[in-house]
């Protein structure tokens, strides 16, 4: 029995009704799929965003995240009103805040978007509204930053407004980690300042997803869940990246070793090395906990070291390219290198925190002539097709494992006299490339 149906009695007891209006503040990679899910579930939905171009696209029937097939399909089926008029927020019975939470150059969390969105909601909402923050924040943010903004407007928590936190779980594109999972069937956790707030938030999410909704004991615990999830990933990726560097020196193929380790049916979870960690979550979220704990007098040395290792990988990948060139007596300086991929992960157009830009910067710093191509991010590229970039460069650097690159006709390498392939995602056929007389280097292979 699906969870949404199983919990229907709780849903109605908690005064959550499909006749209510859901306002989603922030229509990006998290907010847009969330708005579509609420609409699909039968709610009246209003989406708010300060990006007028984005709003006009949505109202004009154009999906701003068209590169994500799952989102584009839902967008075509479930239309909702988008607005940049703050007064429309007043209509919301449930307001979901899904705005970015980046870090600054010193890796400190930046809450400008959360603050401005919370202030706006606090000024415009009607009494009794359920407000749920989906943005990733460090433990204590709702208590120390969000709550005071509502109280400053005269709202009584647990009476005039019910504030909850439900950290987003979005995985754009295709991922081996999330195969078969999407926003509608992925379990969620919720926490609030009051028991009634937690129950109302849980009831809402049970009405839109077909998965478990766990009620946390406090809003601070709910905030800590997402940080733990992504810090776990970051630390394990850092471990395998360090192993890859070691295996390069030992002459061991890290992929073969991982496949061997995977045969153990328990106590091992495969992670894979690459030229860098990108996206808005894994390279960012650990800093939230590092900063929060530091303010409380604790230093997360292990997590800091994991961040240091993963931040180094773009530089290490360039060193691998230099090593490959040196093996055929060529320098890095002056060589024409094609970067294949600007997105942070396969088959999406999301470039947030993408290691590709660090790789390009480091290559150019050492005098390389760099040209980029990404079929999903053409507006940021120097070349507009795979055929064009292969004809213009002498070596290629796979920075994103898009299907277009993984499935390319390898004879094109020989045809275009490509001398070196640096496989930053370990996604290419090493033996087939070397059989063409092309030098191959991966990360740990």
The CATH architecture name of the largest domain reads 3-Layer(aba) Sandwich
Residues in helix, %: 40-55%
User: Please, how many domains?
Assistant: 2
The spatial strand order of the largest sheet comes to 3-2-1-4-5-6-7-8
The total of helices stands at 17
Given the C-alpha coordinates, what overall shape results?
A: globular
> What structural class should be given to the helix and strand makeup?
alpha/beta
Main sheet attributes: strand count, strand direction, barrel closure: 8 strands, mixed
Average predicted confidence as pLDDT: 92
Classified by CATH, the class of the largest domain is Alpha Beta
What is the CATH homologous superfamily assignment of the largest domain? NAD(P)-binding Rossmann-like Domain
The CA-CA distance between the termini, in Å, is 46 Å
Evaluate the radius of gyration. Answer: 24 Å
CATH third-tier fold name of the largest domain:
Rossmann fold
Number of strands: 13
- The H/E string reads HHEHEHHEEHEHEEHEHHHHEHEHEHHEHE
- Low-pLDDT stretches are 1-15
Amount of beta strand: 5-15%
Could you give the topology of this structure?
Blueprint: H1 3-6, H2 8-13, E1 21-25, H3 31-40, E2 44-48, H4 52-59, H5 69-77, E3 81-83, E4 94-97, H6 112-124, E5 129-133, H7 141-152, E6 161-165, E7 188-192, H8 195-208, E8 213-215, H9 219-250, H10 254-261, H11 285-295, H12 301-327, E9 336-340, H13 355-365, E10 369-373, H14 386-392, E11 395-398, H15 403-406, H16 411-415, E12 420-423, H17 430-435, E13 439-442
Parallel strand pairs: 1-2, 1-4, 2-3, 4-5, 5-6, 7-8, 9-10, 9-11, 11-12, 12-13
Antiparallel strand pairs: 6-7
